[in-house]
Amino acid sequence: MPTWQNAHNIGRLALTAGLLMLAAAGFAEDAPPAPRATIDGTEPGWQALAEADFVNVNCAPDTWTWKDGLIKCSGRPTGVIRYKDQLTNFELVVEWRHLQDGGNSGVFVWATPKSIESLQGRGGLPHGIEVQVLDLGYTELYEKQYKKKADWFTCHGDVFPTGSARMKPFPPVAPNGQRSFPSKNLTRGVGLWNHYYVRCLNGEVRLWVNGEEVSGGTDCQPRTGYLCLESEGAPVEFKNLRMRILP
């Protein structure tokens, strides 16, 4: 039979263990959460973007259609539409979904006027910073077509410079040292809506995918230019396209 002293010691040990468990639970609750974006573009200063805000650069007249807030892109030909004015510091929210397995698209920020002008009358994409919009099936299609591993891109929100543009990517970084790979894989597959929040400020681009910050870069050149939506071979839809100009 245990003595009173043994029972007392056992009680003290149990109390100490319980306090340690509570402290650990409290520490977990106090740990800083992952950066999230609950921004939907309805806060003060935001504006909804409509068809009248964009200029067709090198797409066909029927490549892009706008109706009841839904922006439909056929994917053909490869090209872009651009926002009417050049931008420097701004925030963007947009939802997108691919309608075809392995679909490809993107959002360009700070696309250079010179590269935009050079696209007149021909296909192609501008020089700037691209925020990638890929369907999850693109990896399999690439590997089947080119018979090699798709280790230089992801389908979850890469951010990278194109053409003459430059950027210092946030880690993790692609093998070529140019792309910022996402820190988490959060993109939803074909037919499902995804939410992007993009912040472009003082030469720095940051991307949140479905509520969490995943990729970006700093020391961008240029840091002023056009916002563009990309058509590249497959049907894609956008909605809730909104922007806020920053000082």
> For this structure, what is the CATH homologous superfamily of the largest domain?
Exo-inulinase, domain 1
Mean pLDDT: 89
CATH architecture call of the largest domain: Sandwich
Work out the number of β strands: 15
Assembly classification: single chain
- Enumerate how many helices there are, as a single number: 3
Runs in which pLDDT lies below 50 for 5 or more consecutive residues are: 1-29
Give Rg in angstroms.
Answer: 23 Å
State the distance separating the first and last CA atoms. Answer: 77 Å
Task: Give the domain tally.
Answer: 2
Helix content: 10-25%
Percent in strands? 35-45%
* CATH class group of the largest domain: Mainly Beta
Order of SSEs, N→C? HEEEEEEEHEHEEEEEEE
The structural class is: alpha+beta
Taking the sheet with the most strands, its summary is: 9 strands, antiparallel
Overall geometry: globular
Query: Any idea of the CATH topology of the largest domain?
Result: Jelly Rolls
Secondary-structure topology with pairs:
Blueprint: H1 4-30, E1 47-48, E2 54-56, E3 64-67, E4 70-73, E5 79-83, E6 90-98, E7 104-111, H2 113-118, E8 128-134, H3 138-146, E9 159-162, E10 166-169, E11 194-201, E12 204-209, E13 212-221, E14 226-231, E15 236-245
Antiparallel strand pairs: 1-15, 2-5, 3-4, 4-15, 5-14, 6-11, 6-15, 7-8, 7-14, 8-9, 10-13, 11-12, 12-13
